[in-house]
Amino acid sequence: MAVYALTGFSLVSLLSFGYLSWDWMKPGLVADVATDPMEKSLPPTFTRPPHIIFILTDDQGYHDIGYHGSDIQTPTLDRLAAEGVKLENYYIQPICTPSRSQLITGRYQIHTGLQHSIIRPRQPNCLPLDQVTLPQKLQEAGYSTHMVGKWHLGFYKKECLPTRRGFDTFLGSLTGNVDYYTYDNCDGPGVCGYDLHEGEDVAWDQSGKYSTFLYAQRVSKILASHSPKEPIFIYVAFQAVHTPLQSPKEYIYRYRSMGNVARRKYAAMVTCMDEAVKNITWALKKYGYYDNSVIVFSTDNGGQTFSGGSNWPLRGRKGTYWEGGVRGIGFVHSPLIKRKRRTSWALVHITDWYPTLVSLARGNLSNVQGLDGYNVWPAISEGKESPRTEILHNIDPLYNHAKYGSLEDGFGIWNTAVQASIRVREWKLLTGDPGYSDWIPPQTLTNFPGSWWNLERLTNGLRKSVWLFNITADPYERYDLSEQRPDMVRTLLMRLVHYNRTAIPVRYPAENPRAHPDFNGGAWGPWASEDDGEEWEGGREPLKSRNKKKKKCKICKLRSFFRKLNTRLMSNRI
């Protein structure tokens, strides 16, 4: 009875006490900042291609920025956003690799074969080599291109490395998760290696330097050594604020009053990252780049609520297709914006940066076929209507099929057991298992186990596989309209069928023991030869690829349960 008392608290009490009545348009959170009328009438003109700085943070939650009402201090980000354009209808992907691949290629996951999970360190897999990347298009336009930070798009062959995919220089990690000081990464017991690279070499000499500081310092160094008369593109993919939760002590001290230890460390990391952005902005001004620059800020996915992040008041978390997993923090700051100091509700997706930035750079897109992104600069700079009306969040045929889904539930045109999600104008459809579905206010997080237990019960107790929401009217996804609007469900299912016909086979090969760091001098890095072929798995028809039923494994489920429980308990003891 004690357990069920706790499980009932999270959602019911939130509804009872009004936690979910947070005003979406409350002044000071996402409202417009007053605009000088003269600023609109005197737009700057582009005299030469602008310098482009793209900043991507890792696992930063939707709530975890000052102007979204957070208890975390982000004065630099708040100021840059207030003086630029806040993107409040901006979407990303629920996990790391998918967001990065769509940024770099301008294509949905289903069109690169990366629609399932992430690229893992020991997989012979990487961003498809036939894709022309964003930095390659900018190089064609005369840009100097540089990457600093987390790659996470595969490295099993040298051809997969950032310096072979369009970047002139690279300093950062190749895998998805490293220690902030030692740069060690373990992909299982005893499978550990060093992961910090300078170009195509291992950067052993940089060990011990906190990555957020190291990356900001590298950006400043790049700017100092380059001429502002020549266009430059710098992709800054901070490791922050992904786990492990590590920060210099002086930043943790600022949040000493926070009772939740994970939240305290996480907050310190966010503020530290904010100061790194401040240093980058200062360098742009110091070295003469700022007046002709465009700064884009984006998160890569929703926050991980078990590790201090918060997506409040949105539903869900990282790894899910609820709004908390796919709605991101985004803004553009630039003296070149015609209508500054405002909030944009134009629909924007992370694939849109490819054509938008190439167009800003006066690059050539005529020879690039099959882009899923749109040029949204007129919507951002001038307040025009976005050319985008829909977003395919994903179709993942390999993800565990929902227990209660069927072709019958999908009007005979779509197997609703398949994990998929799409948005068309104000409507959003989810099928299969969309992931953990609770609303978690930041004050509970890891210090209140009731939310966690209720989270599990909500997910496992839903005897359905189709959800429909009017996201414009219901941004928190509280009111499922799938039964009231079967006509709209069918319409969106038809759009999924359309996209599924264009999908290429899933690229998710088995891990290869040759990738072990012990065979590479103790570091993660390329291990396959140029002659090794690419390994593929999956097929073009996701609805037919999972017909065979797997035998139920009670002991496997039990092990999985205790792993989750142990992780949960350990996080409360950090």
Number of domains: 2
Strand order of the largest sheet: 9-8-5-4-10-1-11-12-2-13
Round the mean pLDDT to the nearest integer and report it. Answer: 86
Global geometry = globular
Give a verbal description of the structure.
This protein is of the alpha/beta class. It has two domains: 51-388, Alkaline Phosphatase, subunit A (3-Layer(aba) Sandwich); 408-502, Arylsulfatase, C-terminal domain, CATH 3.30.1120. The protein is 28% helix and 14% strand. The chain contains 14 helices and 18 strands. The chain has helices at 2-16, 37-41, 75-83, 96-105, 134-140, 211-225, 249-253, 261-286, 323-326, 353-360, 377-381, 449-461, 486-501, 554-573; strands spanning 51-57, 85-87, 90-91, 144-150, 169-173, 184-186, 192-194, 197-198, 201-202, 232-237, 293-299, 330-333, 342-344, 348-349, 390-396, 419-424, 427-431, 466-470. The strands form four sheets. A ten-stranded mixed beta sheet has the order 9-8-5-4-10-1-11-12-2-13, sandwiched between helices. It has a four-stranded antiparallel beta sheet with strand order 15-16-17-18, with helices on one face. Helix 1 crosses helix 12 and helix 6 packs parallel to helix 8. The longest helix has 26 residues, at 261-286. The radius of gyration is 23 Å and the shape is globular. Mean pLDDT is 86; it is low at 1-44, 445-457 and 536-574.
